[in-house]
Amino acid sequence: MDHTDEYRTAENAATASARGVISRRALITRLATAQRVTQISAPAGSGKTVLLQSWITETDLVDSVAWVPVEGNERDPQCFWISVVDAIRGTTAGSKLMRPPTGAPDVDGRVAVERLLEDLDPLEERLWLVIDDAHELSSGETRRQLELLIMRAPPELRFVVATRHDLRLGLHRLRLEGELTEIRAPDLRFTPEEARALLEAAGVALSGPVLARLHEKTEGWAAGLRLAALSLAGHADPERFADQFCGSERTVAEYLLAEVLDRQSEEVRTLLLRTSLLERVNGDLADLLTGDHGGERILQELEQAGAFVVSLDAARSWFGYYRLFADLLQLELRRTAPGEVAALHDAAAWWHAEHGYPIEAIRHAQAARNWALAVRLLFDHWLDLVLAGHGATTHQLLARFPASVVAADTELTALLAADKLARGSLAEAGQHLARARQGLASLPEDRHGRLQVALAAIGLWLARERGDLPAVHGEARRLLACAEDPDTARLGLSEDLRAVALISLGIGELWASRLEDAERHLAQGIAAAQQAGRPYLEIEGLAHSAMIERLRSLGLALERSTQAIELARQHGWHEKPVTAFAYATLGVTLLVQGRLEEAEPWLDHAERAAWAGVHPAMAMMLHAARGTFELARGHGADALAAFRGAKRLVDLVVPQHALTTSITAGTLHALVRLGQTTQADAILTERDGQQCETGEMRILLATLRLAQGDPQAAADALADVLDGSIHVPLACGGVAEAFLLEAIARDALGDATAAGRALEHVLDLAEQDGGLLLFLIHPARALLERHRKSRTAHPVLIGRILNLLAQGKPAEPAGQGALRRPEENGATGRAAIRGGSLARMIPADDNTAPGRDRTLPLTAAIEPLTESEIRILRYLQTHLTAHEIARQLDLSVHTVSTHTRHLYAKLGVHRRHEAVDHARALGLLVPYSRTA
Questions:
Q1: Which of 351, 367, 383 is the last residue of a domain?
Q2: 183 and 225 assigned to the same domain
Q3: Rounded CA separation 511/375 (Å)
Q4: How far apart are CA 563 and CA 519, in angstroms?
Q5: Do residues 410 and 439 make contact, with C-beta atoms less than 8 angstroms apart?
Q6: Under 8 Å between Cβ of 122 and 156
Q7: Does some domain include residue 630?
Q8: What is the tally of structural domains in the chain?
Q9: Which of 264, 346, 412, 483 has a beta carbon 3.0–4.6 Å from 268's, enabling a disulfide?
């Protein structure tokens, strides 16, 4: 028995063991519901025969199918039609209709077809004629006779043609008439689940990742998977073997050699072998590597013949090989012509470089060990690749250079600095950058320009990641100067460099809390990125711009971060690190609104998109966001762990970085929540006197004093903040937190009027932008409950906050229980909405996701109102008409009228003024006159 026979015996055994276990229900359903003619066209080993046999068995069609296997290179029409007649006579329906054979020594094919049509004309039972390996019908006469039978057959005679490539049978006419069902190679590929079932049927169990890699290598090719199962069965280390499985594995190689390669002419074999080194090939490139012509025609014919060649574009000009087939071809090339491999790679490198395919050019130059060409190509295209979102690819290309080549080359040293920076190794990046700057003088004069651009860009990125604003300004000016240089303009980099400089400058200013400058430069950078056609930079700019918007308008922050995420999705970058900041900003914005359930998946997504340890500022932000999230839902220990994780990164950035204060504040809040006030006190004591006089430090001090049971000390710490003597930056949350702490302190001191006034001011601010996080960080349920009973302008908002507190159940800070004011004089703080427009009276809709209509249990006296009804109620106390209310809410008049009717029914009223009066009596509304 030769190797091919050995393979076939083993494959049949593997197939038999899997058959009946691997159910391909979707394909069998397609066959069961197919049109009059079905064509199954796919390369060798795709599972055509096995599928047909399973379909016949599972649908109980054994007596209704005439199976005709075509022998290799069938040239004799007589043999074929005798086989067809015998197969049909073997079916239940055919045995009743077909006349006995005449016994004539010569059978004319056309006569046989006419006799078949005559005998089967009265056919009333469904009968299938299956022709397997129809590509072996080499006789054009036989194919024409088969076409005649297909076109004139009675309706109950169905045809299934299995072939390695499409046959000329006039099937295009059937396709237009809707009478053709087609099943092709992609349909036959095994899914990962089917692959697992096939392997398990052979007694092979693989872990998820190894199975995924094996499935990727075989591309779902049925024979490849069965050969893998055959090889893996009983193997001592199946996981390792599966990882190494490729087209050069013995059983795979023998199959492909016998079934595909050995069947080709010498011209075709040469093309396949010499182009097997390419990821994709076209006619021009094939002609270059073979030294011949006609490459495109051969590739098209191979693809049409199903010889493991697939077209990659609609024009059928670019082609690729199945991975296992390419492995075999490369093995055969190394065996038969080892001395030609490097030269082929080198020729391919120059061709790709000349035709604008730098990544392929670099890979082939590296394979040819043409390091000089590879270095020049990578360095010249590095910035373009990075700005096009191919940072991971540049890392892979750089890693393929020998260490000795990198150490001796100034340009590669600069790229190594950029690579270390992209992976968060700021110290190493700085060292390589310094070495590259020192090597500038040793380069030829014509290479100075590009290196200076690269050094300025890398230096700018390094400074911005450290939050070193003076260095950011210096490097940005240097890069902008490069952008104006005529040599840079000739290289086509001017707009790219301008966008990089402005966006990086804005990010550096953001981390230094220079918000106005940051906003201006980010806007300019985003415009420059759009002008340059650099969506990757635009996403980065939008994400950081959203962070600034979050400090001013939560609604705009949601819009801007969502815009960045959608742009990333359009370009397939939604899993790349560039999107992590946008995800984080979106998650933090939802968190600030108190929408914890919605925020968590976005924070999770941000953590997945960001590389571990990458970009200290990004990692610090993610730790701080996670800590704040855990704090908001009352998990003090988890919050403290997250903030301490952020604290470990603080030394990698400059001391004045904007995130350091947030991390300090979060750590203190977590310690207070856990009752560890002594440690919290130590954190504040570590600060020098100048830091303690900032607004954010005063707020932290007040938080600690409240936890320690000293409300007067807390009020004293807040005094200068509340009267404006000490400013609290927007980046630190503004004064809202100070007013909330003031309300808690005054309430504990028994000053209900002052407490109500301060709390009303916080509610005013929260009503404008929907920011409810403060109430979760500083839970004060009893104070809010009492305030809701007073003449507050925000009863609905207070109800929402209390609902949030009930859902999240954050614990009161340890020690603050003693500050709860006992029920006493029942004094109320009058609503004091200072200034503003009608919009200030309307609850912000930012914390109601589109399509949601949550209900609020406002009072036991009425049925709960929906958010939509509450919004309508707010407008009813104005003089706006229904049409004007509809325009304000972006609703139809019909929708407003419907909500109004439901609102009247719940309030038990019939007129607008009655609804307003009753709502005020229930505490749902207060008069909107302003008091000082």
A1: 367
A2: no
A3: 35
A4: 17
A5: yes
A6: no
A7: no
A8: 5
A9: 264
- Show the tokens assigned to 374: 């590879």
Tell me the per-residue pLDDT of 419-462, one tens digit each, with 9 for 90 and over. Answer: 999 888 889 999 999 999 999 988 998 888 889 999 999 999 99
What is the secondary structure of 845-896 as a DSSP string?
-TTS-TT---EE---TTSPPEEHHHHHHHHHHTSS--HHHHHHHHT--HHHH
Provide the 10 A C-beta neighbour count for residue 154. Answer: 12
* Average pLDDT, consecutive stretches of 10 residues, N- to C-terminus, the chain (932 residues): 42 42 80 90 84 88 91 74 89 87 63 89 92 85 88 92 82 81 88 84 80 82 75 71 70 72 86 94 96 92 77 84 85 91 97 95 97 96 92 93 94 95 90 95 88 93 89 91 78 85 93 90 96 94 93 87 94 89 93 91 90 73 93 92 90 79 89 92 73 79 94 94 82 80 95 94 86 92 91 88 77 42 30 26 34 37 72 77 77 82 84 80 53 32
Both 358 and 428 in one domain: the answer is no
Q: How many Cα atoms within 13 Å fall on the side-chain side of residue 512?
A: 23
Tokens coding 442: 């040793």
198: how many CB neighbours lie within 10 A of its CB?
Answer: 23
208 shares a domain with 178: no
Q: Which amino acid is at 435?
A: R
Q: Does some domain include residue 304?
A: yes
DSSP 659: H
Task: Print burial letters for 391-417: b (CB count within 10 Å at least 16), e (below 16).
Answer: beebeebbeebeeebbeebbbbbbbbb
Which single residue is written with the structure tokens 């893998």?
Answer: 228
Residues 426 and 559 in one domain: yes
Same domain (yes/no): 481, 567: yes
State whether 568 and 527 are in the same domain.
Answer: yes
Four-point Cα dihedral 718, 724, 729, 733, nearest 10: 50
Domain that holds residue 754: 687-819
Q: Is residue 19 part of a domain?
A: no
Q: What is the CATH number of the domain that holds 84?
A: 3.40.50.300
Chain length of the chain: 932
Q: Identify whether 926 is part of a domain.
A: no
CA dihedral 164, 165, 168, 173 (to 10 degrees): 100
What residues does 856 pair with on adjacent strands?
865
In this structure, the answer to whether residues 213 and 317 fall within a common structural domain is yes
Closest CA to 99 of 84, 113, 120: 120
Q: Which residues pair with 66 in a beta bridge?
A: 129
Which residue, 764, 792, 819, sits at the end of a domain?
819
- DSSP-assigned letters across all residues of 594-622: T-HHHHHHHHHHHHHHSPTT-THHHHHHH
CA distance 479 to 477: 5
Q: How many CB atoms are located within 10 Å of the residue 582 CB?
A: 31
Q: Which of 767, 772, 737, 731 is nearest to 549 (CA)?
A: 731
CATH of the domain at 572: 1.25.40.10
Q: What token pair was written down for 45?
A: 């080993």
725 and 747 co-located in one domain: yes
For 84-124, give the DSSP string. Answer: HHHHHHTSHHHHHHPPPP---S---HHHHHHHHHHHHTT--
